[in-house]
Amino acid sequence: MSENDARAIGEQVSRLEGEVKLWKRGALVVLLGALVAISVSFSGSMGHARAAVSGAGDLVVKSLTVVDGQGTRRIGLTVNKDASGVSLFDERGRLRIALINSKDGHQVTIADEKGKVRANLALLSDGPALFLYDEKGAPRAVIEVAKDHGPLAVFSDENGKLKWSAP
């Protein structure tokens, strides 16, 4: 094996290691979004609110669900020890947008009319990232700017096979 071949293989391995790290970050973003959505769903099904009044008319709660005139959940506010979030639901009660603030980062998640997550914009501890998913929920595009390896873009086909990446 020539020195050029060894260098090319080393560069390819480094690039693949970066892509694996990127997909792990994407999984963390989806997990955080799912936790907030589950938390909001749970708070909406509790059937009662625990509130404390502090001062001049302040309402203090750990979660709040706002429903429309038909009783369909439209807004969810949730706070727990790891995260806080605001979730917006469509007229059918499906999650469409979630704003999440957690100790691991901050994100905006956008779901389609079926409730499938289609986009995530995240600001994690090592930098911002944009994750785009197809209608089946498979990751198709990731663009990030991480502290340790700088800007990166990855695009995959419907089977998860790498189609293009840079650098």
Can you describe what's shown?
Helices cover 26% and strands 45% of the residues. The chain has 167 residues and is α+β, with helices and mostly antiparallel strands. The two termini are 25 Å apart. Residues 42-51 have low confidence and may be disordered. The protein has a single domain (3-166), classed as Alpha-Beta Complex (Outer Surface Protein A, domain 3). It has one helix at residues 3-45; strands at residues 52-54, 58-60, 63-67, 73-79, 83-89, 95-102, 105-111, 117-124, 127-133, 139-146, 150-156, 162-166. The longest helix is centred in the first third of the chain and has 43 residues, at 3-45. Strands 3-4-5-6-7-8-9-10-11-12 form a ten-stranded antiparallel sheet, covered by helices on one side.
In short:
With 167 residues, the chain is an alpha+beta fold. It has one helix and twelve strands, in the order αββββββββββββ. The protein has a single domain, classed as Outer Surface Protein A, domain 3 (Alpha-Beta Complex).
Count of discrete structural domains: 1
Strand order of the largest sheet: 3-4-5-6-7-8-9-10-11-12
Low-confidence stretches: 42-51
Helical/strand content category:
alpha+beta
**Oligomeric description of these chains:** single chain
Q: What is the average of the pLDDT values?
A: 80
Task: Spell out the helices and strands N to C.
Answer: HEEEEEEEEEEEE
- End-to-end Cα distance: 25 Å
CATH class placement = Alpha Beta
How many strands appear in the DSSP assignment? 12
Helix content: 25-40%
The description of the largest β-sheet is: 10 strands, antiparallel
Beta-strand content bin: 35-45%
> What Rg do the Cα atoms give?
20 Å
Q: Count of DSSP helices?
A: 1
Fill in the CATH topology: Outer Surface Protein A, domain 3
Shape: elongated
Proper CATH architecture: Alpha-Beta Complex
